[in-house]
Amino acid sequence: MTTQAPQSQQRGILMTDAALQHVLQLREKQGKDLCLRVGVRQGGCSGMSYMMDFEDPNNIQPTDEVFDYDGFKVVCDPKSMLYLYGLVLDYSDAMIGGGFQFTNPNANQTCGCGKSFS
C-alpha cells in the first residue's frame, strides 16, 4: 500500500520560510491583498530568466496553477510551470549574494547571477 502526501502538501513551487516571510513583508508595504506570480520569460544570460511580481488575485486565470501558503497565493501560468515544477524559492539577507534564490531541478545550466537558466 502506498501512501501519498495530502494534496495540500504537494506544491509545484516551494517557498522556504525565509522566502515566504520576506514576500509577506514586501506585500504588507504594498498595502493591498496581493498574490505572487512566478514565471519565466525568454532572455537572461542563459536563455530563460525568472520573473516574479505581485499581482491582484482577480487576475488569476482558470488555467493558472495556484499554490496556497496559509492564505497567501503563489500563482504560475501553465507554460512557465513546465520549466518551474519543483522550484524552490529561498531568500537570504546576506550582504554578498543575498536576495531571492531559485533552485530549479529542471535547469540544465544556470548563470553566475542565478537569475537565469537553460
Automatic annotation (TrEMBL):
Coiled coil: none
Top-level taxon: Bacteria
Core domain residues: 13-115
Gene Ontology BP terms: iron-sulfur cluster assembly
A molecular-function term among this protein's GO annotations: protein-macromolecule adaptor activity
SUPFAM superfamilies assigned: HesB-like domain
Pfam families with a match to the protein in the record: Fe-S_biosyn
Gene3D superfamilies named among the record's database cross-references: HesB-like domain
Classification via PANTHER family: IRON-SULFUR ASSEMBLY PROTEIN ISCA, CHLOROPLASTIC
Entry's family note: Belongs to the HesB/IscA family. Ycf83 subfamily.
NCBIfam families per UniProt: iron-sulfur cluster assembly accessory protein (TIGR00049)
Name of the featured protein: Iron-sulfur cluster assembly accessory protein
